[in-house]
Amino acid sequence: MTTPGLAPSYTTARQRFLAAADHAGARVATHDHPLAGREGEQLGIDVAEIGDPAAGDVLWIVSGTHGVEGFTGSALQTHWLTTATAPPGVRVVLVHAFNPYGFAWVRRVNEDNVDLNRNFVDWSEPAPINERYGGIAHLLVPERWDDETVAFTTTRLFEYAGEIGLDAMQEVVSSGQYAHPSGVFYGGSGKVWSHRWLEEHASGLAGQAARLGIVDLHTGLGPWGHGELISHEAGDDPGYQRGTAWWGEVRSMQDGESVSANLSGDWLGRIAAFVPDVEITAAALEFGTVDTVSVLQALRADAWLHAHGDPDGDGAAAVRAQVRAAFADDDPAWFEAVRTRFDEVVEQALLALTTATK
Ligand SMILES: [Zn+2]
After folding, report:
1. Centre of ligand 1 from the C-alpha of residue 191, in Å
2. For residue range 297-341, what is the model confidence (pLDDT) as tens digits?
3. Which of 66, 202, 284, 343 pairs as cysteine with 274 (C-beta 3.0–4.6 A)?
């Protein structure tokens, strides 16, 4: 059967997801976001559930943690609803658009310019300090975004990367920062809306789960069409070891194996605190799109647009197109590769849950 591929907008993606959920007989709950989208549309997190409400084995599949990355995640969730179902004894929970505002505005960040996966730090402690970010903050997001400024700042950033090395550069730029609210990879100054939503609803989403699998869908890192499983845990953690038993290769951020920097404040690293008595096996599934420099240039342009430009002005559509192209590829061959890998990962998770020692 043919799949429609990636939707052109958040609203269309949401309509397709809800239609597929309805057709599959899923139980659906909608949680409204307090703000409207770019065209005044209502925003929200939609949760579709399939399978026994009292199941002891539960799988969450989550899209749109990083807004714009939801174009792919949403299409994969819709694909799952139209082609698969929950095996006996397992409940599958699809969380659609965890960061709906970013999805609708074609941004990776949320309504507060916050990267949701840098916001799940322990806010009872002082926020982590990323001192070196401050030294290049003015280069990453300059006040102007004309050709001359882009060329100059990009050259300076390359020079800095040459001095400290590419891995260190990735860490400085993308591991998270809490001191520059209009910068990139900003973690915020407290719990944002999606964070509070998860904290409130996590135990309900887990239900009667004794075992919980989580696949959090992302795009923008790694080789084109390749899907890498990334764990927030270190190699000797039981959750990581279960992950490798389920899926084979899982890369640990903490051990520096992954395409991702070892970052602070990702939600998978915090979820155990919200559902404390559940055995959790979780990974981000990260699909590669374009090269890292193109991704960073898109994020810089987006941050500039919202800090110093006019998000409703003439140049905004071009920036949004640049961001979308960095995180989603409308080439059917790309989505076919992504979908094949997604099917494999979800099937492996469901198999592991149904065969777990009870
Ligand atoms: Zn992401």
Report:
1. 18
2. 999 999 999 999 999 999 999 999 999 999 999 999 999 999 999
3. 202
**What is the distance in A from the centroid of ligand 1 to the CA of 357?**
32
Residue 358 buriedness (CB in 10 A; 0-12 / 13-18 / 19+): exposed
**CB neighbourhood size of 170 (10 A):** 18
Six-digit token string for 270: 């915090």
Give yes or no for a contact between 108 and 327, defined as CB atoms under 8 angstroms apart. Answer: yes
Please give the Cα distance from 188 to 217 (Å, whole number): 22
Position 319, amino acid: V
Query: Separation of 160 CA from ligand 1 center, angstroms?
Result: 25
Q: Which two tokens stand for residue 354?
A: 């149904």
3-state helix/strand/coil string of 164-206: HCHHHHHHHHHCCECCCCCCCCECCCCCCHHHHHHHHHHHHHH
Residue 299 alpha carbon to ligand 1 centre in Å: 12
CA–centroid distance, 358 to ligand 1, in Å, is 34
Q: Which residue has the tokens 């409204």?
A: 32
Residues measured by CB to lie within 5 Å of ligand 1, the ion: 66, 69, 218
| Positive/negative CA dihedral, 328, 334, 335, 337 | negative
CA 349 to chain centre: 19
Helix 316-327, helix 70-83: angle, nearest 10: 50
For residue 197, report the distance from its CA to the centre of ligand 1, in Å.
19
